[in-house]
Amino acid sequence: MPALSLRTRLTLVYGSLFVMTSALLVAVTYVFTVRTMDQGLTRSGDVDPEALSRLQRLAAEGGLTSQDGIAQLMALREDADRRLAQQKRDVLEQLLQSSLLLMLVVGVLAVVIGYVVAGRMLRPLHRVTATARRLSESTLHRRIALDGPQDEIKDLADSFDRMLDRLDRAFDGQRRFVANASHELRTPLTINRTVLEVALASRKNPPETKALADVLLGNTARHERLIDGLLTLARSEREPGARVETPLPDVVRSALGQLDGQAGDAEVEAILVPAVVVGDPVLLERCAVNLLENALKYNVRDGRVWVRTGVRDGEAFLQVVNTGRPVPSYEVESLFEPFRRLRADRTGSRDGAGLGLSIVRAVVDAHGGAIETVPRAEGGLSITVRLPARAG
In this structure, what DSSP letter does residue 138 have? Predict the structure, then answer.
């Protein structure tokens, strides 16, 4: 038997609810009417007992003429009709009040039931909407994968999944192109660096040649950092392959060890509370390294850096705060775009490819996390990475 469509099911549900509520309304109204009629109209044909007894007494005494009898009987009939009309008005008024009250109660009940039923039946559509909100360029690997009958919402979810497949293949091809191009560019740059280093080491070359070789060597080093950053960014935007339980404090300690020589005169304070996430340890370590490197690079002399880990509201977090120049709030979002830098670091250097925070965002998105960046009033930034904590 083929599954009914959503439209058919909604029609059946609301039609059934309407029929049931209407039947309930008719049944209760009928019961109220019968009860009221039994109570109020049992004496609908009665006449005034005093008038009737007076009429009988006059007839027994012989003082009642035919004309007087007719007049008395007409008066009794009018009185009976008046009583009957009044009783009908009372019954109808009571029936109207009861029906209005019942309609109000049944209407509210029908609205509540319809709201609950519609919410349950449209829950798959909410799932489609929530998945669409979570998607971005770097999280195209997620799918709705909706189960259930092949109705309109299932068709919508399947179409959305097919579109995501096409987009994922397109972006994956773009990332593979960037990775392949970066690999191809590394070979000539390595050769150039080797040639330049040999030229610098040779005693036969004049000072002018060595100065030029030194400048070219610096440019080559910057290009190599750019290519390494592009490779890391392309790898970060993919679905993490190896997901293992990774303690964030260990990730931060490893990152601090790699940046030990770059701290300079900055003071680094670490408060590492246990927090475990499930993800790629290499990418998570690169995320921590880039955050700390950015905090150290864009700092003031004798500045400070605070790094904290822990669990808050069921999520693991890694927070890096630094002193530095004031950052306008309208520039915060652009810092995570590729090839965007702050105006200058503490040394005035503009080295770097501008991919550090872009890689951080790609890693966080690939792990289903979020980033919160707040400029400090005293200068510098507070960057908090929130990741799903290990269950249990």
Answer: G
Mean pLDDT computed over 135-147: 66
Indicate the helix (H) or strand (E) that contains 5: none
Residue by residue, DSSP assigns 318-369 as EEEEE--S---GGGTGGGGSTT---S--TT----S-S-HHHHHHHHHHHTT-
Strand blocks (E) in the chain: 244-247, 267-272, 276-279, 304-312, 315-322, 370-375, 381-388
Give the count of beta carbons closer than 10 Å to the beta carbon of residue 45.
Answer: 9
| pTM, 2 dp | 0.52
Over residues 102-131, the pLDDT tens digits come to: 767 776 777 777 777 777 777 777 777 777
Instruction: Please answer whether residues 113 and 17 qualify as being in contact, where contact means their C-beta atoms are separated by less than 8 angstroms.
Output: yes
196: number of Cβ within 10 Å: 21
Distance CA 171, CA 160 (A): 16
Please report the domains of the chain, with CATH numbers, ordered by start residue.
6-121 (no CATH), 152-235 (1.10.287.130), 240-388 (3.30.565.10)
Q: Which residues contact 114 (CB under 8 A, 6 or more apart)?
A: 14, 17
- Mark 113-132 as b/e (b = at least 16 C-beta within 10 Å): eeeeeeeeeeebeeebeebe
Nearest to 319 by CA among 336, 306, 328: 306
